[in-house]
Amino acid sequence: MTSVNGMGPAVKVEDLTVAYGERPVLWDVDMEVPAGVLMAVVGPNGAGKTSLIKAITGLIRPVAGSVAIFGKPYAEQRRLVGYVPQRNSVDWDFPTTVQDVVMMGRYGGLGWFRRPGAAERALAMEALEQVGIAEFKGRQISQLSGGQQQRLFLARAIVQDAGIYLMDEPFQGVDATTERAIVTLLKEMRARGKTVVVVHHDLQTVPEYFDWVTLLNVRCIASGPVEQVFTDRNLRLAYGGRVSYLTHHSPGETLTGGEGGG
Amino acid sequence: MEFLGDLFGNYTLRTVGLGAAFLGIVNGVLGSFAVLRRQSLLGDAISHAALPGIALAFLLTGSKATIVLLLGAAAAGWVGTLLVMNIVKNTRVKYDSALGLVLSVFFGFGLVLLTYIQRMPVASQAGLDTFLFGQAATLLARDVATIGILGLAVLLIVLAVWKEFKLLCFDPDFARSLGFPIRWLDVLLITLLVTSIVIGLQTVGVVLMSAMVVAPAAAARQWTDRLGAMVAISAFFGALAGVGGALVSSLTARLPAGPTIVLCLTAIVLVSLLAAPNRGVVWKWARERVNRNLLQTEAVLADLYVLAMRHEDLGHGHPISVLRTMSIGHGGVDRSLEVLRERGLVRVTADGTWSLTPRGLSEAGRLSGTREEGP
Q1: Which residue of B has its CA nearest to A96?
Q2: What ipTM, to 2 d.p.?
């Protein structure tokens, strides 16, 4: 089940423990992400969702445990992994343009000293068209709306052409239109054989958007196909009984905000 | 003799100007990255921390050769930076407090050493105190050569790792996920910053050197939204202020170059903050004013339209006092009417009242149509 093409799971996390100072934020986490799934990572605030993503991408060093990407350490498989940070992790007033930021996705492939050229620009334009913000290519990035900034980060990930994508809250602060566009994009990526792991906040939309889910609360509560794992019992374990709305939740109903700008 | 004196004077000025231009360019370029990496205050700590290095280098070697003093300054600047980093990493002291701590402790120690050196009975110590506030006139041709060579090396390295530095400043986490060694890039950036600061110390002085790092970059950011342009403009501003300040200082007896350069920088920053397109204060104010005037004019046109609709004769004139009463909340009736008359949308009737022209009527109808959709 976890092996799709003989290479083993896309991501395999074993005994992962991460701590900031004395306080553990992830405790003995074991989980697998099979290749080709669209997985949500959900859990209450402070559950370690961002830390899990950062530990998998090598941005924070775990106290214990290991991460394997298609059976090998992350350092050897870096090219296969694309990381999409939280939108508010960068200074949007930075003096650079939309197209320029997308091309940053190619910097890893270019390696040291080489400058991006026509090929990179063409790839960037393609990705911008895919996420629907090609018309803003020359704009300074602070002139984009929150949703457009999120699309920009996705475009940068697309030009990386990775096999596995780890995204930290791509739906944060975007309007309903953008959320639908992003979901469509993520499903397209899955259709092309990519593996996508998304830190997600809205429990209501998990069954609609994703096929796999990991419930996290410092420990890994459960991880697997949505229909098997996304149960009232597991949710109560992860959230401590604060999920009463799930019992009267109707499919298709979302908690996302109204329609704003573009 | 007079001719000879002139030539000598020009030669000195040329040397001083060239040196100041070099270090202005180098600090303008490095300062851009330091400001964007949010390390502008680090420059202040580095330059102040350099003072004991200069004094120690002199005490240990007895030499006042530029390269010896610069090496001492660079070493001390580096140690200061390392201390800041380690204090932040290993204690609960925050970054800004650590900077303040290192800056004042190193600078105080440097002043003590300087005082000690000045009381030494040898004559060779004279002039070391110019490192406090800078003395452009003391720049010799070989100092300028040192500045030029080190500066060129710094600029070439920046050019080589341009895209890596850009990514480091914009999104370091993403850069690390791509496999770039962020720690070493940071070390490289700081090393280059230390170098560019150190080559300016003789001219600008340790006290005001950080202005040379921060001010050109901050001013340049006002004029552009592109990194390349910002770095180029910052280099230009740095050179401008460096040359201007150094020449004024050289031509005036006992006027240190640090303050004159900072005065030039201040002028550049002020103009940039006020007048730069898009981001400048004046520009923003003017844009708001234009928008407000436009809205006022449309409002007066709409008021006239409402009045016209209530009369069978659409060309009937309306006194300005009525319009003024209607305009409570937006104002600007007189100016708006003048603008509308120039555009041929309203006219003054024989009895001095105002009415819409046929064109004004259709324009107002179009505007009210677009503004009041629905009910």
Answers
A1: B226
A2: 0.87
